[in-house]
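Quick log. Single chain, no ligands specified.
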Amino acid sequence: MPAATLPALFISHGAPTLALEQSATTNALARLGQNLPKPRAIVIMSAHWLSSKLELSSHPAPVTWHDFSGFAAELYRIRYPVAGHPALAESLAQQLSTRGIACSVNPLRALDHGVWSPLLHLYPDADVPVIQLSLPQHYDSHACYQLGALFAALRQEQVLLIGSGNITHNLAAMRWNAASIDDTARAFKVWLLAQLKTHIPTALDWQQFAAAEDVHPSAEHLLPLFFVLGAGQRVSVVHESMAHHSLGMDIYRFD
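-> predicted structure:
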């Protein structure tokens, strides 16, 4: 029988402490890993790798990079000993180059917490090879969407496409462990999901939301959403929650 087509996923990875948590968000990630067909590889775009041009990680055994400071010592002891997939990274870079997209492989890139903190819960055995995709600094939502469309066929080849960021992300508005929820962040989530379900062009122009800068002062945590939207346009909500007052922790599936 032919292998099932995998979805594309948008994961709100939150703070690095996600790696240590047992929460509704991490439970949702664990269920996804248990219920999806096992991928042969993962291609993941994280908000934490900004670059001048498109790059794909090609280290055969990428390092777990603790790209943060000020957290508990146990967080820095975590390792996610996953393999890379240099051959697939090289192949993808060649295919993109033939389409006129400036890109290259990066054999030195380590995995940042936008990659390993959610994957610890999604695939805790670290048994699915990972390629990290950079987010070029000049890309907007439309460019990310177009790139995702180029990667869409990989879903039929047992490659899981992931965008890792946050559905809302304003560090200045965060209140650690607050029980209250920021009304603007919640309104943005409702508005954006409605656009994703009914009118994708409006979703791509997300900055027309009246208070867009209040939920995303910079765009890098939202742009990975549009990468996976380009790869699979039918959206469903896997998980919805807020953390630390203003941090949206939603997980979306695109088929």
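The first helix runs from residue 24 to 35.
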